[in-house]
Amino acid sequence: MIDVKDKKSVCVSGLGFIGLPTACVLATSGYSVLGVDINPEVVNHIQSLKFTLSEPNLQLLLENAITSGNLKISTKVEAADIHIIAVPTPLTSDHKPNLSYLNIAVDALIPHLRTRDLVLIESTLPIGTTESMAQKLHKYNPEIYIAYCPERILPGNIVHELTHNDRVIGGINEDSALKAVNFYKSFVHGDIITTNARTAEAVKLAENTYRDINIAYANELSMIADHLNVNITELIHIANKHPRVHIHNPGPGVGGHCIPLSPWFLASSTPPLTQLITKAREINNNKTKWVIEKIRKTIKENNARVVACLGLTYKPNVPDLRESPALMIVDALEKEAMVLRVDPYFPDTIPLQEAIAKADLLIGLVAHREFQDIASHEITGKMLLDFAGVFE
Amino acid sequence: MIDVKDKKSVCVSGLGFIGLPTACVLATSGYSVLGVDINPEVVNHIQSLKFTLSEPNLQLLLENAITSGNLKISTKVEAADIHIIAVPTPLTSDHKPNLSYLNIAVDALIPHLRTRDLVLIESTLPIGTTESMAQKLHKYNPEIYIAYCPERILPGNIVHELTHNDRVIGGINEDSALKAVNFYKSFVHGDIITTNARTAEAVKLAENTYRDINIAYANELSMIADHLNVNITELIHIANKHPRVHIHNPGPGVGGHCIPLSPWFLASSTPPLTQLITKAREINNNKTKWVIEKIRKTIKENNARVVACLGLTYKPNVPDLRESPALMIVDALEKEAMVLRVDPYFPDTIPLQEAIAKADLLIGLVAHREFQDIASHEITGKMLLDFAGVFE
């Protein structure tokens, strides 16, 4: 690693799932960091250290960063050598990228920018956005370095992935790329790959869309297999013994804030060219409805009264409910039967053993590792519906 | 390997891409083999050894099998301990499985079946077909063993893949599976995985469809990248550095007799449930049309007069033109310019260097390894269009 830690200042805009851990990692890597969020509640919570963070190591990292004085938190941007923008870029209700937070963050930056500052955008973006933002910034000061550096991490292990994953850096020009590489090299252990801004934007979207399409295939296959009386788990297990085949795992839908959004970002630039991509989104959404119907039918046909739903999160082994299809399914079932919500990542839910004892019908929605130990004698005589490989 | 080679007799129905090499391998593995094809021309050609076979080792294997007397060729089925059906199962013009050859082969078998004979189907089948065929056969003799054992090989290396790939065996019942396992174990070195007939049918279709969908994604992405001015090769190269991402290579479409058919076989059983699968087929077909349009536009805009098309086959490094999109593209261009067809696997085509020298526009359609040595100075000043990574 190149040593550039002469107490350079970094201002991180957006203190969410990416911005906060990034600010903490930088503060403990020798930078003087200002973390900015326009939401005063978020700022107060972080400042008072009352945040309960589920990510391993993050709570301690945050405490160290703040007590050392290397991390300050504010609602206002200040001048800094390096600006990182990690604000959310959600979707509008009609599946278009909503760049409001990004625009607010960029506008807030402008009065504080100095010649040779480095501006890094980490938010997921539609292709061409970094170039537009660069045009805006360069109007005020043409000697600003700008690069797009998408985060590529999985929730559940953020601090490790932030520092150990490979990074892609898309410079708006070669000098910008070089400046960005030197900065990331100071705290990233993974490889750093450089390209232009458009390609870096496309890489992030293409990666997530790859996963969405392959999950959509697994989900479509699971519905076909159900219809044709073929065991989907066995089918995929055998097909994947083929050296050139890697079918993903089906589930009750696709959640989280990453995979379901990127395909729409790709589609926003080139709607007539993204038919497979939008079809995959449709299939993954339909899978959730299909699961609800399947459960409803089973409840009705078997007169089930008490239903235990195993797993609420959008993926296994994290306490993360963002856009969780499991949660949508559980909510939809409330009208059909007495629903017992079971999730070891949420202590207020029903304990597993109690739910198994009370329920007529057990429904597998998320394959948390805590469910792996369910013994077959515990579920003897219970009806089972498994959409996530929970009972295997 | 278990030694069951007490000169058991095998009758192989269908002497095409799979049946003939299978018959040869069995004849040289100690079986007494009768190869049957209803086409007398095929039978005559094979008997006279006038067949020119492009597959490595197959020509020699065939000569040995026939001269040793272990392989006989005929238009008529005879009694045998083991019957293998390897007839084509093509598509009708409206994308439905055409099982005529299969039905003819099964009907031809019936008069010759004896108690405890083993019937193995290797053709690609819609899910449930083996069960239907078994019902038909069991009407005549309920003591026939029946299993579905899809071939899973790549053209270009058939003899090696036949004996070294893992095999999936789907028995119509457990005894059938066991009988089939013992037979394949006598000449297959790969693992043998057993399941029921429906699942084995689904595995074969799901494997090919996985590849079709992933190629469709790569093809869709290549059109998006073209529209947004992003280099598709660089995009995929960087995205695939992500440990959980494996985007396939785009191309001018999908050809051959395997991948483009299986999705329709899946769709035939459950049309409303196969929307992603049929959309992927549409994208892969549209990619061919998109390539033609792209070339037409380039020819017009640049007044190109002589166009060299590099590659004619449906995939690299084989002399196989079946359903080749490259060939469709080349044919479509005949009206637009003088077209030089270049393919080292077909000696009658124009030699590469000559075509490069004469053409204004070079078009990469198939990445044969023979094209890897094109030096950059040879193509200086030529217009290039590359749809298959030929000039990289």
Which short descriptors sum up this protein?
41% helix, Rossmann fold, alpha/beta, 392 residues, homodimer, 2 domains, 4-stranded parallel β-sheet
Describe the fold and architecture.
The structure is a homodimer of 392-residue chains. The first copy, chain A, is α/β, with parallel strands linked by helices and 392 residues long. Chain A has two domains: 9-204, 3-Layer(aba) Sandwich (Rossmann fold); 232-386, Rossmann fold. The first copy, chain A, is 41% helix and 14% strand. Chain A has helices at 19-27, 40-47, 58-67, 100-109, 129-140, 158-164, 174-185, 197-228, 232-239, 262-269, 275-302, 325-333, 352-358; strands spanning 9-13, 32-36, 71-74, 82-85, 118-121, 145-148, 167-171, 192-196, 306-310, 338-342, 361-364, 383-386. In chain A, the strands form two sheets. The first copy, chain A, has an eight-stranded mixed sheet with strand order 3-2-1-4-5-6-7-8, with helices on both faces. In chain A, strands 10-9-11-12 form a four-stranded parallel sheet, covered by helices on one side. The longest helix of chain A has 32 residues, at 197-228. Chain A is globular and about 70 Å long. Chains A and B meet through helix 8, helix 9 and helix 11 of A and helix 8, helix 9 and helix 11 of B.
Indicate the topology:
The structure is a homodimer of 392-residue chains.
Chain A (H helix, E strand, L loop, with lengths): L8 E5 L5 H9 L4 E5 L3 H8 L10 H10 L3 E4 L7 E4 L14 H10 L8 E4 L7 H12 L4 E4 L9 H7 L2 E5 L2 H12 L6 E5 H32 L3 H8 L22 H8 L5 H28 L3 E5 L14 H9 L4 E5 L9 H7 L2 E4 L18 E4 L6
Helix pairs in contact in A: 1-3, 8-10, 8-11, 10-11, 11-12
